[in-house]
Amino acid sequence: MLSAQFGEDRVFRASRSILVGSDFARSILNAVEGCGVMLVIVDAGWLDKFGSTENDSPPTCDWVVREIEEAFRLDRIVVPVLLSGVGCLHAPGLPETLTGLAGLQYLRFDYRNIRQDSEHMVEQLVRVCPGIAKLRDPGSQRFVRFRWFRWFRRFLRYLSRVRRDK
């Protein structure tokens, strides 16, 4: 949905945006440096992925932490997006370098309100970073919503598989 709204070249997702054979670390850090807004997607098990010590955390979470730390260091706008059922973030439950997330105004995204929540998200992103707005054909809105729904449905299936595998 965000790619359709703002343009594929203006939305970075590591799994789709980093070309094969590219340096992962450099690509991620360049994307953070060039971003206007970073969305931190928080699902129900997000905090559990960090483990109790740095040695317990999976390698992908190390990159999540590093990306967010870099965004804070570069004074980028960071917006936590709390998915269905996730409570507010509290500093004591976060890795030390990410405690600033707890004080940030967040967006909620509920799968039962995909249309309204996605429209609200777009409005808020344009408010905090007007430069990301892109002219679009008003007739394409129905297509945009359908693509967003399909993407989000796949995302929810992925989350349910991850939870079953635990």
Helix-strand pattern, N to C? HHHEHEEHH
Number of strands: 3
Largest sheet: 3 strands, parallel
Structural class: mainly alpha
Name the average pLDDT: 79
Which percent range describes the beta-strand content?
A: 5-15%
Outline, from the CA principal axes?
globular
Distance between the termini: 29 Å
Radius of gyration: 16 Å
Stretches where pLDDT is under 50 for at least 5 consecutive residues are 135-145
Q: Order of strands across the biggest sheet?
A: 1-2-3
User: Number of helical segments?
Assistant: 6
As a percent range, the share of helical residues equals: 40-55%
Tell me what you see in this structure:
With 166 residues, the chain is mainly α. It has helices spanning 2-6, 14-17, 24-34, 59-73, 114-128, 141-165, and strands at 37-42, 77-83, 107-109. Helix content is 45%, strand content 10%. The chain has a 3-stranded parallel sheet with strand order 1-2-3. β1, α4 (59-73) and β2 form a beta-alpha-beta unit. α3 (24-34) runs parallel beside α4 (59-73). The two termini are 29 Å apart. The model is unreliable at 135-145 (pLDDT under 50).
Tags for this model:
single chain; 166 residues; mainly alpha; three-stranded parallel sheet; 10% strand
